[in-house]
Amino acid sequence: MTEIQSVQNQTIRRLKALKEKKAREEEGEMLVEGEKMMLEAAQAGLSPSDTLIETEQAARYAALAARMEALGARVYAVPRRVLEAVCDTKTPQGACAAFALPCLFDAAHAPARLVVLDGVQDPGNVGTIWRTADAAGLTGLLLSRACADPFSPKVQRAAMGSGFRVPAGLADDLPGTLRALRGAGHVVIASSLQGAPFYEGAPHVEKFALVIGNEARGVSEEVMSLADVRLRLPMRGGAESLNAAVAAGIMMYELMRGR
After folding, report:
1. Phi first, then psi: what are they for 44, rounded to 5°?
2. Is domain 2-100 in CATH 3.30.1330.30, yes or no?
3. How many other C-beta atoms lie within 10 A of the C-beta of residue 90?
4. Strands 113-118 and 140-144
5. What is the pLDDT of residues 96-141, one digit of tens each?
6. Measured between alpha carbons, how far is 155 from 206 in angstroms, rounded to an integer?
């Protein structure tokens, strides 16, 4: 295991840059932090490259280092201060690695049961919806370009490994993509405060695209106009709306009920 001491080292600077979207797109890689997430990424078939192990915890992470090397990664021992400079978390767990970005699906090969995010910008919401989609049994996450970057560290931490298991797609033209999905047999379901009561109108179909809108503005007008079904969750108390991730979770589980 090669040692690196300086934050100015070329490898360290490259890994540190992966916290930014531009660098992730240019390198085709993202930074994965912590042993559990690294092992989940590897299990999902993603390829690691440069891997950092905290020098003081080298013995603890010996098996992890061996696994990364077996997958073709270069493994480096670094002091705590270097790991902290690279990682997005304030208290890194002791290991991180660059992994190849997962492959994105396109509309022509979209999974059958989709949750679609129309401008959801909070990374925690995006990651939580991704994780809940995985738990509920949905098979894909489709995001408009106005959403938080799905491969940012904050999104992936909130997704807790589901970002490696449930495939994602990015739509440059979300309305056009939804038209293509409808043509392929998907029923487009939009969350709307003006929609029909959810528990009375939720369809049980094999192929659907559940659209969740922006935290402040909801689903955009053009996207809403393409919805086959518009539904609202009941608000029996004083709250006017639900957090996007909470609303998405309730709807996803109900749409999957009985499957």
Report:
1. -80, -5
2. yes
3. 6
4. parallel
5. 999 999 999 998 899 999 999 999 999 999 999 999 999 999 999 9
6. 28
